Amino acid sequence: MDHLDQQILQCLMLDGRVPMRRLADAVGVSEQTAARRYRALHEAGVLRVLVRPAAASDTSRLWLLRLQCRPDASARLGDRLAARDDVGWVALVSGGAELMCTTSLPAGSACGTGVLPRLSNTAAVLSFSAYSVLRSYSGGPAEWSGFDEPLTAEAQRHLLNGREPTRRVARGEVLPDDRELLHELALDGRATQAALARALDWPMSRVAGRLQALLDTGAVDVDVDYLLEPFGFTTSAYLFLQVAPDRIVAVCEALSAHRFTSWVAAISGAANVMAAVTCRSGNDLFEYVTGQVGALGGVIHVETLPVLTRLKQADTRVTRGRLER
Prior knowledge:
two-stranded antiparallel sheet; 12 strands
């Protein structure tokens, strides 16, 4: 993957449904070239644009799970977890003896629902720890930005048509009639209004009106699942930090502003901050942890869990190094 592919991915990370003509202008190529490169990245399983209902923090709670497993059964268990709709970000870590994932539960739900109560009866699981995600400090423009040549400020302004790259606060809702529309957008998050109208047999005006309403009210998020290994960033890890309570907010804000972090959260437990990190190499990871993380005031202890294999992104399975629906 070359410089142009990196630029296209960065554009989509800022606005996954940006018109191809505007994306092409931002990176300085023809619309045909930009469209051809995007199709190649998509067909190679390097990226997927997702349009999905926005997570509502007041109606659901996100949990981070660490599962200590029998090494001979961890991959099979990981596949089973990745197949669940309520589980995301599944990865084998610690040399294959541990699984990491996230899961969500409706607020106030009974303890017998979801994946959590099933773990104690799973022979492959030796023990597990569950951390409640208390606050997330990344997403939208705070996502991973470790490319050697980031988009210029001018290119970002052109791409966003002068808007600031901020995530909307969810205040709208997905109506029952929107389910068909969201199903088609799950197949292709960049589907045009004309293509959606044909697939749904809806008038173009209905497609345009509902899609714009969902986007404007924050009822849906537009995100991009992507793999960084094809771009040369081959070393990922989860960092668990023990931070002095009065420094948690400052540490989380600092970490989320770092180039190599894709997700930062304040969590319950003795390790009260977690960060997902991707670097080019193990040496770069070492320098990041000892240099930038170690320099943050209030950090008492850092545990580093290298990722061996990623089995699922947010909503996308990873199969043989490709993103698959």
